[in-house]
Design brief:
Oligomer: homodimer
Distance between the termini of chain A: 59 Å
Number of helices of chain A: 16
Number of domains of chain A: 2
Strand content of chain A: 15-25%
CATH topology of the largest domain in chain A: v583 fold
Helix content of chain A: 40-55%
Shape of chain A: globular
Strand order of the largest sheet of chain A: 5-4-1-6
Protein name (chains A, B): DUF1116 domain-containing protein
Largest interface: A-B, 80 and 81 residues
CATH superfamily of the largest domain in chain A: v583 domain like
Radius of gyration of chain A: 22 Å
CATH class of the largest domain in chain A: Alpha Beta
CATH architecture of the largest domain in chain A: Alpha-Beta Complex
Number of strands of chain A: 15
Largest sheet of chain A: 4 strands, antiparallel
Pfam family, one (chains A, B): AllG
InterPro entries (chains A, B): AllG-like (IPR009499), OXTCase_su_AllG_h-dom (IPR024033)
Chain lengths: ~475, ~475
């Protein structure tokens, strides 16, 4: 480009950016450049010993395993192949079994919103005629609760899946993962209500939307989920709290099939639900998470999942092993008028698997609009992504940010770095009412507790010591 | 938000941003802060006199008229109401008339790509059996050429519209404007080729796509064009060179109607054409431009339009009066491999009406991806928007940029500022081959010549002097 006199004025644009950021910093009363001076792991001697082993004598093994883990995440390209009744595809989802989000939990300890969703699912399945009767069945243990994650299924928020619900089937080679269809707004199960209208909607899913989606996918052929996500990331989505643009990309993929298959109500639902793509991102992320099986020695986080009571974390190096702690409160959030933090349920949902593969809270820089949910602006959103880069093993080559000059999103959360820096993954999430059964009351960022990451790397170090 | 230790690390994000921008500045070898020191209007004495009158004794009248003009642009909300045969809705588009982009031009002077498009349109209409015969008709003046803009019609690039082509009809109250359906990629008329396949596509538009769109809009109801554009602006579109996200928003609006109306080929075309929304933005922008009728005394630019030979500019204060100059060369562009600037046609198309209402080149900050077409990055894109703010009367309240903390795009190009600062509107545009009939060879930014803006304000000053 020939230098022109008018490019001189670009200096003004810089000044604008700077001033904005400076305001943001001032507004948050943030002091400057101290993070590197904090003692590692807050100076905890036991943790320092664990970290010394994991960076020291096991450093080479862990490093190689982590590089392998990142390569597996980045190399996994799940495609949406069909939509089918959960019972017909999800392993072990038999009659009398209900899946839920988060680590394993007994009925007595299930939080209020998840409880309501489970009761609605029992009614939907016809296993009980009323919610009271459903509660008896669950109390008596006549219905089995299982974490969706242990059945290759992930669900947002309450994350309930029952055998008759249609689910997305995504696959990469022989590896498959599943997620329910997103229910959208209202008194839905995922938001912890599950009223009669929500149960009717599930029947519409089962009888109309699900079968039509299956026919659309059959007509269209498989859809590359992360391919769409990578585009949506440069259309203002971070793919967890906001998937609007990516949902529209899905609609573009399906448009010709919609014309062929028809179904006004189904098309209207797909187009009208801003979160419709969320569950696809989740299923694909779960698929990538499953690809980490066998990365022995890796401290990369393969799973973060919450049930509103506890958060469970898993490492690529120890597949299937939960490290749990009380679920976070979502205090970095915007609540709807009249609601206070006391009303809020604790952090809930399987959706944090999204952050494990480099989207959601890792990719906040992509979605300045989302920043308003935690009182921030575009610079604050970008800074959150950079913060997450501190605890990740790599930058994604698949998910890049045009508005950050094509830098990749942070990918491969290294539990060692989480423990060392005491910086935990931030999950962009909705907030449910904790007890009134009124559904979503806000959205924001859930900062995960450090305890399960500490416990996980302690176990990993012990396992590596024993080898 | 509670201050947390980790917010300290935001400083790194600042550093990243700074460094990137500094690199961009260095790469462009740009000196710093001199723009305010240049003599106004390059020191031209005649122009200084005109500007002195327009800012001085006419300043109040012009300022009030410009504020009115901006209010009219911002207050205009065109809705897409239907798609219909051009002859049935476009005033004066009778049998034997062809519309073209840009200011009026005689057949002998029409540039090569526009000539090819006109010949194809004659064949499409069945007025001639061959392009040679079509050329004879045009040479003999048996077909009338007219600028689309004088018939409330705008078309991208060659901008050809013939009576049987279906056109978008947008309206705001009693005010209507029109644009053809975007033809998409290939050897199309808008790209200055118009081969037999392109003519077949026009028949598909006339017989299938157009009527189906009309039925879809009837089923859906009118669509707020700028409402969608405002959303798309925060999904990576600047709405001139890139309309992908906004096109998907349109698809979302139409999804249920697609299911009802059917038509696989039509749906596939709408979904597959990345520029499908462009012509809607143009028609809506033209509608807003028409709303400027009666802003007497205003120096706000109501129209910039090019035919590949000349650019014509109009001011809100002198509606219908063209100020012309040779069309710009699009030298700030990325050309496809093997092509050089010598191959490129001059700047062409009615689409610059988009820049007149605050989108396209005004909104480059929204679309960092587009920046790559002129060798820039996100910071360069943002700087281009700030440069345009220098020559605009206001910031849009309708079109705001989330990635710039919701600042509005510059709106209401003030021809006084253009002449004074010698900074002309930048139009994001495609580049056509100038003579080989091979269609689009690139895309970039066309910097308009200053001459027509100078001529326009000279005439405006004279008119105000006479009052």
């Amino acid at each position: 480009m020939t230098p022109r006199a008018d490019v001189l004025t670009r200096v003004e644009a810089v000044n604008l950016g700077l001033s904005t950021f400076a305001d943001a910093l001032r507004a948050q009363d943030a002091p400057v450049v101290q993070v590197d001076w904090r003692p590692p792991a807050g100076g905890d001697a036991t943790m320092l010993d664990v970290l010394t082993r994991l960076w020291g004598r096991h450093g080479r093994v862990v490093g190689a395993a982590n590089a392998d883990a990142v390569a597996r995440i980045e190399g996994c390209s799940p495609r949406a192949v069909t939509v089918a009744a959960a019972s017909s595809v999800v392993p072990g989802l038999e009659d009398g079994v209900l899946l839920h989000s988060g680590p394993p939990i007994a009925w007595e300890r299930v939080c209020d919103p998840q409880r309501r969703a489970l009761l609605a699912a029992v009614v939907f399945e016809g296993w009980a005629a009323s919610r009271a009767e459903a509660a008896s069945l669950l109390e008596r243990g006549e219905i089995t609760l299982a974490p969706g994650n242990e059945h290759d299924h992930v669900g947002p928020m309450t994350g309930v899946c029952s055998p008759s619900m249609p689910v997305w089937v995504v696959e990469d080679g022989a590896r498959r993962a599943f997620s329910t269809l997103n229910e959208g707004p209202g008194n839905t199960l995922w938001f912890g209500v599950g009223d009669d209208e929500a149960v009717s909607r599930l029947r519409f899913f089962r009888d109309d939307l699900g079968p039509r989606l299956a026919r659309m996918l059959e007509h269209r052929g498989p859809i590359d989920v992360f391919g769409l996500a990578a585009q949506g990331l440069n259309m203002g989505d971070e793919l967890h709290m906001r998937s609007q643009a990516t949902g529209n990309l899905l609609l573009r993929e399906l448009a010709a099939s919609i014309a062929v298959v028809g179904g006004e109500e189904a098309a209207r639902f797909i187009a009208g639900n801003h979160h419709f793509f969320l569950n696809l991102t989740m299923a694909a992320s779960k698929c990538a998470s499953l690809a980490l099986d066998g990365c022995l020695g890796s401290s990369v986080v393969s799973l973060i999942s919450r049930n509103g009571v506890e958060v469970g974390v898993q490492l690529a190096g120890m597949p299937g092993r939960w490290f749990v702690a009380p679920a976070a409160t979502v205090d970095d959030a915007l609540l709807r008028g009249g609601h206070t933090a006391d009303d809020a349920a604790r952090d809930i949902g399987d959706s944090a698997v999204i952050e494990c593969i480099g989207l959601g809270g890792m990719a906040l820089a992509a979605a300045p609009v989302v920043a308003s949910f935690f009182g921030g602006n575009a610079a604050a959103a970008a800074a959150r992504t950079e913060l997450m880069a501190q605890i990740c093993a790599a930058r994604s080559e698949r998910f890049t940010l045009a508005n950050r000059d094509h830098v990749g999103t942070p990918v491969g959360i290294d539990a060692r770095l989480v423990a060392e820096l005491d910086v935990t993954p931030q999950i962009t999430t909705g907030v449910l009412h904790g007890h009134a059964g009124t559904g979503q009351i806000g959205a924001g960022v859930a900062h995960q507790p450090v305890a399960p990451f500490r416990a996980a790397i302690t176990a990993l170090a012990a396992e590596l010591d024993g080898d």
